[in-house]
Automatic annotation (TrEMBL):
One GO BP annotation of this record: lipid metabolic process
Signal sequence extent: 1-19
Protein name: Altered inheritance of mitochondria protein 6
CDD domains associated with the record: PI-PLCc_GDPD_SF_unchar3 (cd08577)
Naturally occurring in which organism (per UniProt): Marasmius oreades (fairy-ring Marasmius)
Length: 307
């Protein structure tokens, strides 16, 4: 479109009369014909490349979930509160409203998007695979981090129940009978998520965000059938501000944590990385990427996706 406009402008201002190349005429005539040949069915995220970015407190954005997907962000986080048997989403209790439920902001939009990416047609009738949210990479799952804010034991069954529309359609990554089967959405609990309940749930389609700084200092045997991801507070675990040079100790801590996670097949995420100044933020992101951190935790999705 842009190219076409450029060409037209050039043709008009040029002293020579130039014919429009046939190929551009063909393109514009096809576009104006509303031809069924141009109707691509699974175009919701057409051309968007998924990126290993985690949308920290995703519900803060003007349009939760969709904004993250539009940048290709492959992990989003929702803080959930159980009030009167309903799950609401917000950073603190003062931020809750009747309309902003976990179901309305995350579960139903995901059902709609993934259903649209998996139309029932005469071509898919024998198919068993399910496409994910990203059309360019249909096998890339979306990670949905659920940060339970209210009592873990009480809230847990409600979260499992809330995921039923996704579970029923086979959209959830599931560990069953010794096998991890990746599907379109991998749900991971954090915050007050009760570890024992997650471990006891088999088949398991709600996983546990492991403590990255304690992977081999606790009696727990961590692995990726329980914890696809492990996280820790960057400001405590590494603490380099991004200004000046990282110290040897800081770098050694960073690399050790990553090695411990990776040796268990677990992906690593550092939260509370510096957000400002942006040069410091970028230096930290660069170091994390160089050292092999799997997820870039980001508040500014535009900056992270352009990084
Ligand atoms: C294009 O075709 C589709 C399918 O037949 C139809 O729903 C739509 O209204 C058409 N759009 C225009 C602009 O004619
Ligand atoms: C919770 O339920 C009680 C009793 O029915 C009601 O008075 C209260 O307004 C409810 N609160 C919310 C946030 O729904
Ligand atoms: C689906 O399977 C049936 C039975 O094997 C076969 O006749 C049909 O051609 C298959 N359709 C497609 C789209 O593969
Ligand atoms: C679970 O695994 C066992 C041993 O591999 C097998 O015998 C059994 O059929 C499996 N059950 C299901 C439901 O897949
Ligand atoms: C940072 O490291 C570089 C390369 O090792 C060195 O040239 C520079 O002097 C160091 N800067 C500071 C402030 O220590
Ligand atoms: C921790 O994990 C690393 C990486 O696999 C391993 O080399 C090291 O021996 C472990 N340390 C302890 C104390 O288990």
């Amino acid at each position: 479109m842009h190219l076409f406009r450029l060409f037209v402008t050039a043709a008009v201002t040029s002293t020579h009369v130039r014919a429009e190349p046939g190929i551009l005429q063909e393109i514009s005539s096809l576009k104006s014909s509303n031809s069924s040949l141009l109707r691509y069915p699974t175009q919701f995220t057409q051309g968007i490349i998924p990126k290993a970015i985690h949308s920290h407190n995703d519900y803060w954005r003007e349009v939760p979930l969709l904004t993250a997907l539009s940048y290709g962000v492959a992990s989003v986080e929702a803080d959930v509160w159980l009030v009167n048997e309903t799950l609401y989403v917000g950073h603190e209790i003062e931020a809750l409203t009747r309309d902003r439920t976990f179901d309305a902001l995350y579960v139903q939009p995901l059902v709609e998007i993934i259903s649209a990416q998996n139309p029932d047609t005469e071509f898919t009738i024998n198919g068993s695979s399910v496409n994910g949210v990203f059309d360019t990479s249909s096998g890339t799952p979306l990670q949905l981090l659920v940060d339970i804010k209210t009592d873990g034991e009480k809230t847990f069954p409600f979260v499992l129940q809330a995921l039923e529309p996704l579970r029923r359609r086979g959209y959830l990554t599931t560990f069953s009978n010794g096998t991890l089967k990746t599907s379109t959405v991998t749900v991971v609990g954090t915050g007050n998520t009760p570890l024992d309940s997650v471990k006891a749930s088999l088949p398991r389609d709600f996983f546990y965000d492991a403590p990255l700084a304690e992977l081999n200092s606790t009696s727990e045997k961590w692995d990726n059938t329980l914890s696809p991801i492990a996280s820790t507070d960057y400001s405590l675990a590494v603490a380099w501000s991004g200004i000046g040079n990282i110290t040897e100790d800081q770098l050694a801590n960073l690399n050790r944590l990553l090695q411990e996670a990776h040796s268990l097949g677990i992906k690593a995420r550092f939260w509370d990385t510096p957000g400002w100044p942006s040069s410091a933020r970028n230096s930290v992101w660069r170091q994390l990427a160089e050292s092999g951190a799997d997820w870039l935790n980001a508040d500014d999705l535009q900056a992270a996706s352009a990084f």
